[in-house]
């Protein structure tokens, strides 16, 4: 039973690692240059603080996930890891929300604030950012599952016992 | 000991309730009209999807917190509440991140995308939004503390026991 739990946890972590690494690589390698009214502008992730935050958060979670996979055999650390998993889930949720909010303005604009959509000028950049955000979203879902699984495993032996 | 825990939890929930209700009230009641080049524009929270999401999320957490305070004497539900607390913390984190990302563009603009800052035109609106975001941020921190406190309480009796 403990072995099944460990295998499921490691599988979930491997999936999360794949998703976060994909999100970082796609976001960092994406750039597109466009000409608008004789002005050249280059769309890159580091022009937008939210996308920078997204890349940094996904990179931190990638590193943590890798360390967690390596250390998962040392069960002494499991209590610390339950707490850190919750933090990583929060970090992923926060970064994907901030990046999505900006990506939405990039796609649809905001007529009330006078912000025009930019996806018409840099369609490839937008497509790749969308891909990166989907990967980040998948990572956040996987970490949520990981947290629920840890919490369930922690809470179930206490069935009926008052806190 | 169990009584101290309950008192601390209820106190934290009351603080969170105050913060989320303040965030919703300030955000919803804020609007400002500005004249730019003979065009009138009205700044309101529901012109921005991220701010709408922020208000809805804070309202949901307010309702949940109120119910949690009322039901906290019924200890049968405490396991469900640990899980729901984590969800509420994630919802708060997500909504504050999305709203902050947009507020930052409103304050600083984004020259690369050609989005101009709007806080020069509607300074009062910006100040009140900032206030609302600070309240939302406080609520998120309080919920994080609540989760850590629950997790600590759940994990500490298992000291040294393998999962």
UniProtKB/TrEMBL annotation, chains A, B:
Protein name per Swiss-Prot or TrEMBL: CASP-like protein
Its membrane topology: Multi-pass membrane protein
Transmembrane helix listed as a keyword: yes
Every Casparian strip membrane protein domain range: 4-141
Transmembrane segment boundaries: 51-71, 83-106, 133-155
Record note on quaternary structure: Homodimer and heterodimers.
Highest taxon of source: Eukaryota
Similarity section: Belongs to the Casparian strip membrane proteins (CASP) family.
Organism: Tripterygium wilfordii (Thunder God vine)
One Pfam short name: CASP_dom
Major location category of this protein: membrane
Gene Ontology CC: plasma membrane
Residues of the signal peptide: 1-23
Keywords of the record: Cell membrane, Membrane, Signal, Transmembrane, Transmembrane helix
Subcellular compartments: Cell membrane
């Amino acid at each position: 039973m403990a072995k099944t739990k460990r295998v499921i946890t490691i599988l979930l972590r491997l999936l999360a690692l794949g998703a976060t690494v994909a999100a970082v690589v796609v976001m960092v390698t994406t750039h597109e240059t466009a000409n608008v009214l004789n002005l050249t502008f280059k769309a890159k992730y580091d022009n937008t603080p939210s996308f920078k935050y997204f890349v940094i958060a996904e990179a931190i979670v990638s590193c943590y996930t890798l360390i967690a996979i390596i250390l998962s055999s040392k069960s002494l650390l499991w209590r610390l890891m339950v707490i850190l998993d919750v933090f990583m889930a929060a970090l992923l949720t926060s970064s994907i929300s901030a990046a999505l909010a900006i990506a939405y303005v990039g796609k649809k604009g905001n007529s009330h604030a006078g912000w025009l959509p930019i996806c018409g000028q840099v369609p490839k950049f937008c497509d790749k950012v969308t891909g990166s955000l989907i990967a980040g979203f998948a990572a956040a879902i996987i970490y949520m599952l990981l947290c629920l699984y840890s919490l369930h495993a922690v809470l179930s032996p206490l069935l009926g016992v008052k806190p």
